[in-house]
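Appendix C reproduces, verbatim, an entry submitted by the partner laboratory led by Prof. M.T., so that reviewers can inspect both the input and the predicted structure.
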Amino acid sequence: MKIRTQLGILVAAASLLVISAQPMLAIGGLRTASSVSPAAGGYFGAKLDSDAFPSNAYSGQDCPDPGACTRVMNRAYNGGIVEAPKPGYVDRIKIAAGTPGSFRLFFVKVKPGTHMAKAVKKGPVISYQGQPGDGDPMVIETFDISDIYVQTGWRLAIRSSSSSLLRCDSGNGSFTYQPTLAVGGAYVDESDNSSCALLIKAIYR
């Protein structure tokens, strides 16, 4: 009788342990699920390859008027992605350029269905070397930058007085703004329409 009673107590105690453990397991499962971060990686901008030659701009193309201008991507080379497809941090920039030069990186918002844009984020000045030879095949340059958080729909833009990372062949490749766009400014209409597509790409970390 004593043995049967002790067995009953042990079984009851074991059942209580199982029941009390279940909420802890459930809580643990929820915590694990909430800690899963969204998929990293991806890009937007030009889909650069060894054929990304800066047609009609290999030696650099000046802004329409003397001084600097802002060029905003409107057509992405080689079936690339014009606007940021998701929010996230960008930590690398790739370009295909002809001769050496430099530009200030910007991120810009364009009003849907218009050519009106405003600068929303200023990036670093990037100095590039261009091609060591004749550009056949093209050498793609990569630059590590400090993390920049971008929002869905933002576009890449560059500010310079001349640039050799342009492919000027056909179509409405970019919008040009002169005077240049500044962060905090209102939407302004383009001052010039260009066939030149920007040979630049932003990489999510």
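The chain is about 15% helix and 35% strand. Additional entries are available on request from the coordinating office.
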